[in-house]
C-alpha cells in the first residue's frame, strides 16, 4: 500500500520513549531472580596489580575468566575455543579496533587498509574508526559494493545488527582480505545455534550474551598467536588492561549459567537462554502483530532453523527490529520521532532513511508503550479505510 | 669516581626480580588491614545498563564515583574540582589519548599536532600515541628542545615519572599550544601537597592514588565543557564507557579514605596517606643508604616542602627511583640485568642509557632483594679500595 502522508496520522502527547540504543535491560528480570547466586564480594586488598597471568598472551586476563569463557562456549556450542587464544577488552568495542590494527601492517601502509561491512551494517563501526583518523585503517563502507584492488578487512556480523540476518563474507576483490567476525548476537536466546563458529578472529561481548552491558567485558577468540599478541598490545597501550572487578563478576555469572545447564534436573524455560528466548519470542509475536496492523512498516522475514543447543527449531528473535517504511514515508526516524519514539534511522547503517531500527531488549514499559503507539496507527488506518 | 668496568663486579645466581613496572603492590598491606570495611558486594542484576547518569556530560559515570572523586580532592586539597567537569576512563591511559584528541582540531589538520613532554618523560606516552598512527596527533619528543612554529600539546607530569621532580610547562614556541597535566602522582604519600592544582585538563588515576591498578579507573578534571564532551565521546567510541563494578568499588574505597580522615579521633600514621608515606619514607631512606654505599649510581636530590595536607615538611618520596650511572657505566639497564634486576633504561624516557628507573612501590621481598644486591656492589667496592 502507499501511505498517503510522510507524517504519522496521530499526534502523541505522551513522553518520548527511547528505543534507539540496544541497552539490554530486558534481562534484568532473570538476574533479579538469580541475584544472590550471582553476587560477588570484592575485598579492599584484591586486584591491586595490573597483571593477572604473565604466562598467558593476554597477561591482564584473570585465569577464571578465561576458564569461564571456554566453558560457556563449550556448553552452548556456538564457537570453537580449542587451540585458540582468548584476548579480552573493555567491551568488544575496544577489541574491534584492536583486531583492525592487529590485521594491518606494522609499518604505515601507502594507503590505509579499507574496512568494509555489508550494508545494513552496525552504525558504530564507522565512527569508531573515523575518530582515530589513522593512517593504518579507514572505513570504506558497504562490503557488497567494494571493488577496489586494495587490501581490505571485511567485518562479518551474524546475526547482523541491525537486521538479524545470518551472513557470510561478500567482498569480491582480487586484493588480499582479512575477516573479522563480530558474533555479539550469536547466542541461543536470539538465534538458533546451527554450528560452532570457527573463524580466525571472532568477537563476543558480555553485554549481549548475558545483558551485563555496564561491565564492559568483551572477548576475542583468535587463531593466530601473533594476532592475539598484537591485540593484547593494543589493549595494553589503550587502557593497560581491563577492569578486574568486571572480569571476576563476568566469570561468576558465566559460571552460574553453566552450572545451571549442567544440573541434571534443570528445566530449560527456567534457565538463562531459554527464559530469555521466551521473553523475546513473546515480544516478537506482539511486535509482528502490531506492525502488520499498522500498515506503515514491514519487517524482515526470518526462516526457522534447528538449534543444536535448544534441540528445537525456531525463528531468529533479533535484538533489534529493523523496519522498512511503506512507500510514501521517506524518513523512518522522523516518523518515529513524531510518535515520540527515539529510533535510529537507516543512513547510519549505510542504507536509506526509509529504514529504522528499534531495540527489542529494552524495558517492558517502553516496549509496551511502543505497541500502544503502533496500535494507534492501525486504529487510524482502519478508520481511514472504513 | 670512575667505575672501572661496564659490568657489575658481582655475579648474581639468584632469580630475576622485576622492578621495571610501577605495579603498586606495596599498598596491599594497608588494604589488607581495611579489607572488610572496603569490601563491595555486587548482585547479579546490577549494572546491566550502559548508561549511568544521562544528565551528566560523562553519561557512563556513576554519580557516586563523581561524588567520591570530588570529596577526595576536597579532603586532600590537591586539585580544584569546583565548576569543572569530571570525565572518567579505563585508567588515565585512555583519558590521555582522549585529551589529546579533544584538544586537536575536529577536521584533519595539514600536519598532526605535536605532542611533547620534557625529558626524562613517561616512557609510555610515545608508544600510546604511535600505535594509532593518527593524522591528528603525533609524538614529537622532548618539550625542552621543541622549537617548531607548529601547534603543539605539552604534557606536564608532576611529580614526574620517572624522576619525581615538580615541573611546569617548558615549551618556548610562537605557535599555539595546549597543556595536559598528568597528576597521577600528586598525592600526599609521594609528595608534599603545596597547592591546589588548577589547570585546564588534569589527569588522575586510581592506580597510583590508592594502589588499585587492577581496577583501571582514571579521571580527568576538565575546565571547558566542550573538551569534556569530546573526551567523553572518545571513551564512548573506544569502549562504550567504563566498567561499573570498578566505578562502584573506587567510590567505596575513596569514600572510606575520606571517612577516616574526617573522623575526629583519627591518628595520621594509621590513615591511608600517612601510613603509605611512612612505608615509602622508610624504603627511600634504605635505598639512599644503599645507593650511596654502592658508588655506582647517584640519585636525584629532592628539597623539602611544606605539605598543606599533612601539616609538616617532608621530601618527595617518588614512586620510582631514577638512577644515574657513574662514569664508566654506559648502560644502566644492562648493568641491572647482570644483577638479575629488571629495570627500565633511560632511552624510553628520552634520555641516555646511563639512566635507569626502578619501582619503589613493588613487593617487600623484591625491594629487600634489591637492597641486598646493591649491598653486594658496595662490599666489592670497599674490598677493591682497601
UniProtKB/TrEMBL annotation, chains A, B:
<dbReference type="InterPro" id="IPR050478">
    <property type="entry name" value="Ethylene_sulfur-biosynth"/>
</dbReference>
<dbReference type="GO" id="GO:0006520">
    <property type="term" value="P:amino acid metabolic process"/>
</dbReference>
<protein>
    <recommendedName>
        <fullName>Alliinase C-terminal domain-containing protein</fullName>
    </recommendedName>
</protein>
<keyword id="KW-0808">Transferase</keyword>
<dbReference type="GO" id="GO:0008483">
    <property type="term" value="F:transaminase activity"/>
</dbReference>
<dbReference type="InterPro" id="IPR015422">
    <property type="entry name" value="PyrdxlP-dep_Trfase_small"/>
</dbReference>
<comment type="subunit">
    <text>Homodimer.</text>
</comment>
<dbReference type="InterPro" id="IPR037029">
    <property type="entry name" value="Alliinase_N_sf"/>
</dbReference>
<dbReference type="InterPro" id="IPR015421">
    <property type="entry name" value="PyrdxlP-dep_Trfase_major"/>
</dbReference>
<dbReference type="InterPro" id="IPR015424">
    <property type="entry name" value="PyrdxlP-dep_Trfase"/>
</dbReference>
<feature type="domain" description="Alliinase C-terminal">
    <location>
        <begin position="17"/>
        <end position="376"/>
    </location>
</feature>
<dbReference type="Pfam" id="PF04864">
    <property type="entry name" value="Alliinase_C"/>
</dbReference>
<dbReference type="InterPro" id="IPR006948">
    <property type="entry name" value="Alliinase_C"/>
</dbReference>
<keyword id="KW-0032">Aminotransferase</keyword>
<dbReference type="GO" id="GO:0016846">
    <property type="term" value="F:carbon-sulfur lyase activity"/>
</dbReference>
<keyword id="KW-0663">Pyridoxal phosphate</keyword>
<comment type="similarity">
    <text>Belongs to the alliinase family.</text>
</comment>
Amino acid at each position: 500500500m502507499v501511505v498517503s502522508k510522510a507524517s504519522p496520522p496521530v499526534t502523541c502527547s505522551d513522553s518520548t520513549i527511547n528505543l534507539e540504543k540496544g541497552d539490554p535491560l530486558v534481562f534484568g528480570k532473570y538476574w533479579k531472580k538469580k541475584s544472590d547466586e550471582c553476587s560477588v564480594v570484592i575485598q579492599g586488598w584484591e586486584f591491586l596489580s595490573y597483571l593477572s597471568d604473565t604466562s598467558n598472551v593476554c597477561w591482564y586476563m584473570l585465569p577464571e575468566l578465561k576458564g569461564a569463557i571456554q566453558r560457556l562456549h563449550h556448553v552452548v556450542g556456538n564457537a570453537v575455543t580449542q587451540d585458540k587464544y582468548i584476548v579480552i577488552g573493555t567491551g568488544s568495542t575496544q577489541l574491534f579496533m584492536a583486531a583492525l590494527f592487529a590485521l594491518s601492517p606494522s609499518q604505515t601502509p601507502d594507503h590505509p587498509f579499507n574496512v568494509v561491512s555489508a550494508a545494513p551494517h552496525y552504525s558504530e563501526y564507522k565512527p569508531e574508526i573515523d575518530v582515530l583518523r589513522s593512517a593504518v585503517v579507514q572505513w570504506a563502507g558497504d562490503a557488497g559494493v567494494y571493488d577496489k584492488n586494495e587490501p581490505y578487512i571485511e567485518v562479518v556480523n551474524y546475526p547482523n545488527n541491525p537486521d538479524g540476518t545470518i551472513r557470510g563474507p561478500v567482498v569480491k576483490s582480487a586484493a588480499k582480505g582479512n575477516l573479522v567476525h563480530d558474533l555479539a548476537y550469536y547466542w541461543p536466546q536470539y538465534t538458533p545455534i546451527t554450528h560452532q563458529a570457527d573463524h580466525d578472529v571472532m568477537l563476543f561481548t558480555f553485554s549481549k550474551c548475558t545483558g551485563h552491558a555496564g561491565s564492559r567485558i568483551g572477548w576475542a577468540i583468535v587463531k593466530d598467536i601473533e594476532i592475539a599478541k598484537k591485540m593484547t598490545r593494543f589493549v595494553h597501550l589503550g587502557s593497560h588492561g581491563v577492569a578486574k572487578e568486571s572480569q571476576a563478576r563476568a566469570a561468576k555469572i558465566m559460571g552460574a549459567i553453566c552450572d545451571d545447564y549442567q544440573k541434571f534436573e534443570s528445566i530449560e524455560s527456567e534457565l538463562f537462554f531459554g527464559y530469555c528466548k521466551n521473553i523475546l519470542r513473546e515480544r516478537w509475536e506482539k511486535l509482528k502483530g502490531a506492525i502488520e496492523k499498522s500498515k506503515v512498516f514491514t519487517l524482515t522475514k526470518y526462516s526457522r532453523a534447528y538449534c543444536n543447543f535448544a534441540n528445537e527449531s525456531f525463528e531468529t528473535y533479533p535484538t533489534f527490529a529493523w523496519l522498512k517504511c511503506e512507500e510514501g514515508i521517506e524518513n523512518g526516524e522522523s516518523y518515529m520521532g513524531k510518535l515520540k519514539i527515539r529510533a535510529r534511522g537507516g543512513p547510519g547503517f549505510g542504507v536509506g532513511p526509509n529504514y529504522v531500527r528499534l531495540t527489542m531488549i529494552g524495558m517492558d514499559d517502553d516496549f509496551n508503550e511502543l505497541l500502544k503507539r503502533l496500535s494507534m496507527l492501525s486504529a487510524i488506518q482502519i478508520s481511514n479505510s472504513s
